[in-house]
TrEMBL record:
This is DUF1343 domain-containing protein. One of its GO terms (molecular function) is peptidoglycan beta-N-acetylmuramidase activity. Residues 263-413 form the Peptidoglycan beta-N-acetylmuramidase NamZ C-terminal domain. It comes from the Bacteria.
Length: 414
């Protein structure tokens, strides 16, 4: 697998070194590049146009983007077109090219009204680019902000695009972005029989990888069909480290609409497999938890409503829910432990008066499957049985440690 790692600084010498560095394995690195000074300004891959614009000249380009794909404050498609890049096709993931579709909504094909470029949805009738859609393409670009959780579907889209590129002999250029949860590697590793649309890869709940690192792991671990390899080029994030706080300039989806929701998402999304609302149907999703039958157990309350473009038929719609408010929860507590928070799930189960309904899938069509979300059938059983938290965490081994060891081979950043 050949890779060219474009990296950190803008001097001609550094650019020359990186454009001529060919890695024979995912862990090979150029010796030059990067100041190593974390006080320097973090710069996303997309913002380092000087490292890839010349490479795009004369090429017919397809690009997979959404509303988080920006250069400065301008959508990347608009910027690249203005700079003379020949974009022949746009692809969009879940929530659509502009990021306005509700969770799980199928998105149709369209034409971008600003540029006139055809926009193809990969979250509707098709999941990956077709041979015909790539026939007139020389290079594919992937630039989407991820949040580092297994059940966040952009990593699935990444794999599908890599598969299509590998099948059709197309190169994939990844403009990397930081993982806001890059410090967190925790949770049970997905069990094979629980493979689903919210769990494709054998990884823990929070994987701690950037999109580019994840792409290298897909290649290196042979996760594409028939262990195909996708030819990758990567523009790294300048001056980034995994444990650095990173505030997203654009929210990644309608129900991750605050920095707090992004940081809490790996911990709270499992509640979608329970009777507990995670705040869908409010303007504070993934920062509050509650249910009607918890009245008297908690003082805080909220009432989910139908909100177009966010949650149109939320769990417990128009019914007051009682629970906990995490909008001001100190995220540094999670940074210190480096662990998925299980206490909220365990405490809510203990407090719920009708325990037989807590994980009951028949309660609402909006509820997910706790086993698929957790990646294991054990967690639900353990919570019902009152297994201590430390013992629950021990049951995630050796899978979690094995993943951490494998992950190290694909890291691009400290």
């Amino acid at each position: 697998m050949k890779q060219i790692l474009f990296s950190f600084v803008f001097t001609a010498f550094t650019v020359f070194c990186h454009l001529n560095c060919t890695a024979t394995t995912p862990s090979d690195k150029c010796k030059s590049g990067g100041t190593g000074n974390t006080k320097d300004k973090l710069i996303t891959g997309a913002d380092q146009t000087g490292l890839y614009l010349d490479y795009l000249k004369g090429k017919r380009v397809a690009i997979l983007v959404n509303q988080t794909s920006i250069i400065g404050k301008t959508p990347i498609v608009d910027s690249l077109v203005s700079l003379g890049v020949n974009i022949v096709r746009i692809f969009g993931p879940e929530h659509g090219f502009r990021g306005t579709a509700s969770n799980g909504d199928k998105v149709g094909d369209s034409v971008d009204p600003k540029t006139g470029i055809p926009a193809i949805s990969l979250y509707g009738k098709q999941k990956k680019p077709t041979r015909e859609q790539l026939a007139d393409v020389d290079l594919m670009i992937f630039d989407i902000q991820d949040v580092g959780a297994r059940f966040y579907t952009y990593i699935n889209t990444l794999g599908q695009v890599m598969e299509a590129c590998a099948e059709n002999g197309k190169e994939l250029l990844i403009l990397d972005r930081p993982n806001p949860n890059g410090f967190l590697v925790d949770g049970p590793v997905l069990e094979d029989h629980l493979h689903s649309g919210i769990g494709v890869y054998k990884i823990p709940i929070s994987h701690g990888l950037t999109i580019a690192e994840f792409a290298q792991m897909i290649n290196g671990e042979g996760w594409l069909p028939n262990k195909m390899k996708c030819q990758l080029k990567i523009v790294k994030v300048a001056n980034y480290e995994h444990d650095m706080p990173y505030v997203l300039p654009v929210m990644p989806s309608p129900n991750l609409n605050t920095q707090q929701s992004v940081m809490l998402y790996p911990h709270i999304c499992m509640f979608e497999g329970t009777i507990i609302s995670q705040g869908r149907g409010t303007y504070m999703p993934f920062t509050v938890l509650g249910a009607p039958l918890l009245k008297g157990k908690f003082n805080f309350s909220f009432t989910p409503k139908s909100i177009k473009g966010m949650s149109e038929t939320p769990l417990h719609q128009d019914t007051e829910c009682y629970g906990i408010d995490l909008r001001k929860y100190d995220i540094t507590a999670i940074r210190k432990t480096g662990k998925i928070n299980l206490a909220w799930l365990m405490d809510m189960y203990k407090a719920y008066p009708e325990k037989e309904k807590f994980f009951d899938m028949s309660q609402s069509k909006q509820m997910g499957n706790i086993d698929k979300l957790a990646g294991t059938e054990n967690l639900k059983r353990q919570i019902i049985a009152g297994v201590p938290e430390n013992d629950i965490r021990k049951s995630w081994e050796p899978g979690l440690s094995e993943f951490k060891t494998a992950r190290k081979k694909y890291l691009l950043y400290p």
